[in-house]
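Re: How this chain folds, sequence and tokenised backbone to follow
Notation: Tokens come from a learned vocabulary of local backbone shapes, not from coordinates.
Start of record: The labelled sequence and token lines come straight after this line.
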Amino acid sequence: FFQKITGYIWYYNLVRKNCNRKDKSPLDILKESREKINPLALMLPALDLDALLNQKLSSGGHHVPELSSPLKFSVDINIAKCILKSVYLEGNMKTATAKELRYKTSSILANIRKGSEVIITLRGKSVAVLKPLEKGEKRFNPVGFGIWKDRTDLKNPAEWVEEKRRERFPK
């Protein structure tokens, strides 16, 4: 039993082709960079990654493991956050497809209000950048027209409504 397990671990860690590495086995990758690596490194005992990460491998031929419980070894959370932010978030820019913009408008606008910029993509190409205004202001100021144009009491409609309400609804 242990010979079979050890053989499988050697196969898994050295000979199995990896679809994420241009279908090369770890041994092929080591051979390509053999000038940089000491040949004695190939004699090191195999590392049982499943036990280290306390995880199950997903079925269906994919080589991506699923985490079943938290990791056993400790990782500095600040370093992990730094790596995640630099690799995945690309600074302060986020991307969203046109479909996501339609269905998740409120969450995208919430991100923009927080100060991040969002790149809108359509079929994989960037088409627009949504970014927060430097100064939030009300852009629409209704202007009277027609017979209402010359009325002095309606220069500020909000004040006029407040005044009318004050008579009926005292505080």
Observations:
- The mean pLDDT is 69.
- Residues 2-67 form one domain.
